[in-house]
Amino acid sequence: MRLSQVALSDLFSQASQSKEERATFRASLRSRLKNAQRLKMNAQAAATTSASSSRARQSRDAAATARPRESEIELQRATRNSHNAAATSATRTSESPQSRANRLSWAATSMAAVRLSQTPQARRIRLDGDIQSLATARGITCPVYNLQAETRIGILPPSGRVPGRDVILLLQAMLHEVNSYIRSFKYSLENALFPSFSTVIDVDKWPHDEHERRYNAPACNEVAAIIHGDRVWTFFASSVTTKLATSFVIFILLSTSLFIYIMMTHLSIYLSIYLSIYLSIFLTDKTEDDKAEDFAQLAAVSFSGLIL
Fold first, then answer.
1. Where is this region: Disordered (predicted)?
2. Which of 6, 101, 213, 263, by CA, is between 20 and 30 Å from 304?
3. Residue 274's CB: how many other CB atoms inside 10 A?
């Protein structure tokens, strides 16, 4: 009798526990369902925000940033840019390789998404804005930049696919703003003390405001020589001294004992020779005709002003 009472008590206890567990499980399900419904409502509310209101908010933010920028004097602007550059450099130095890879991947993905979503009209407005801002910073009017782009299109080979005008404008804006070679070329051309000179850039050196090995990145060593027109050795074999004394010549000495030689065949008012991406590409190496040693000696003695 006592055993049966104990068994019944155990059964009642198990039944009450199972009821409590079921009630707890149901309460958990109801809570999850409410959370899911709340998240869905928040997402729908965020999705219903119109694109015009987002653009208006972005315009207000841009205007609020632009107003103090317009009132800045040159020294304040230079100080702010220097502070921002130092902060960015410190952050980039401390980041790990994985963090840097993630940052670059995220930036590339974001930029690609923005560019794909742009209409042709919006893309042209963006390019014109880039050119206008660069023109203002350099003290050059936008029509001059456009004229340079049209001139470069005119000197491209007639055969083959010619890039569009907007592509050339974009490349021009990028090179004027961020390319270290372009900055060095422009500095040497704007500060030349002689009417005829050569610019020699050694990739084992770097400007005082750049980090070490700025010029000898692996991509730089992929190109051994860049020339325009005939082979460079033919040029040096014919009246070398006279030609060097009456024209601008640019040499880039690579760390692999190879050279990049850029010959000026045309000159616009703003010295468009540094856009070397439109020159013909010719590859050579040190063993070809045993001319690299002669080239090095000639480059070492043939310039009247050495920059960098």
1. 39-103
2. 213
3. 22
Q: List, for the chain, all residue ranges whose pLDDT scores fall below the cut of 50.
A: 3, 140-145, 203, 213-250, 252-308
Burial of 272 (0-12, 13-18, 19+ CB in 10 A): middle
Q: Which two tokens stand for residue 9?
A: 């008590």
- Asked if residues 182 and 233 have their Cβ atoms less than 8 Å apart, the reply is no
Question: What does the radius of gyration of the chain's CA atoms come to, in whole angstroms?
Answer: 32
Q: Mind listing the pLDDT tens digit for each residue in 67-107?
A: 777 777 777 777 777 787 778 777 777 778 888 788 778 87
In terms of C-beta density within 10 A (0-12 exposed, 13-18 middle, 19 or more buried), how is residue 253 classed?
Answer: buried
| Whole-number Cα distances in Å, 96 to 93, 100, 103, 274 | 8, 6, 11, 35
Torsion over CA: 15, 19, 25, 26 (sign): positive
Strand partners, 226: 281
- Give pTM, 2 decimals: 0.22
Nearest to 198 by CA among 299, 116, 59: 299
**In this structure, are residues 258 and 224 in contact, taking their beta carbons and an 8 Å threshold?**
yes
User: Which residues have a Cβ under 8 Å from the Cβ of 216 and sit 6 or more positions away?
Assistant: 203, 204, 254, 255
Contacts of 278 (CB under 8 A, 6+ apart): 152, 155, 156
